[in-house]
Design a protein that fits this description.
This protein is an all-alpha fold. The protein has one domain (20-181). The protein has 7 helices and no strands. It has helices at residues 2-11, 22-36, 39-42, 121-129, 139-148, 150-156, 169-181. It is globular, with a radius of gyration of 19 Å. The relative contact order is 0.19. Residues 1-15 have low confidence and may be disordered. It comes from Sulfitobacter marinus. InterPro entries: Multihaem_cyt_sf.
Length: 190
């Protein structure tokens, strides 16, 4: 017990200097945007059109997802060809190049409100800090989503020589937490 009290006394009270600055928050956002704007993420975060992409990958020119896939309003392709036709919901090392990737979850596109493809840093920043436009998450829940989602984990480690975002998942979560602690600043905030 004495060690805990000593640690608290040494640490001192929490002060304003413990809160990250707006500049630190914006730098953390830049790291986050490097992920949210990466094709590994934007290829599925496509918005209302529901047509996943194969941009920035190893297939040559940017292209729509093969097989004329459309997720539709269901976000799982129920209206045309379900994602599960090729994407199997089981854990896998995803070691075979160009094979449909597998995760331990049912494949689907993110909600249409979470469109990132072609969106600016400012647009995605404003979107992610607002539970009305980020699928209902507060910042703590958003961090938990990053930690727990099979889709997110796959995006950072897709296997089979697939491209990955420029920072790892742990750094993304740290950036989110710093950005949240700084008050979720966006570049064009007053």
């Amino acid at each position: 017990m004495r060690g805990i009290v000593l640690a608290v006394l040494i640490a001192g009270p929490v002060t304003a200097q413990d809160t990250p600055t707006k500049a630190q928050g914006l730098a953390a956002w830049d790291d986050m945007y490097s992920v949210t704007s990466h094709p590994r993420c934007t290829n599925c975060h496509v918005g209302k059109g529901g047509i996943p992409m194969w941009n920035g990958l190893t297939y040559g020119a940017d292209a729509v997802h093969g097989m004329h896939v459309q997720a539709g309003d269901s976000r799982v392709g129920a209206e045309t060809m379900p994602c599960r036709t090729c994407h199997i919901g089981v854990a896998s090392a995803n070691a075979t190049p160009h094979a449909p990737p597998m995760i331990d979850d049912a494949w689907r596109l993110p909600p249409a409100e979470l469109a990132w493809l072609g969106e600016s840093s400012q647009d995605i920043c404003v979107q992610l800090r607002d539970p009305e436009t980020n699928d209902g998450f507060d910042m703590e829940e958003l961090a938990t989503h990053l930690e727990a989602s099979a889709f997110v984990a796959w995006g950072f480690a897709p296997g089979a020589g697939r491209s990955t975002p420029p920072i790892g998942l742990d750094k993304m979560i740290a950036a989110l937490n710093l950005w949240a602690s700084a008050g979720t600043p966006c570049a064009n905030d007053p």
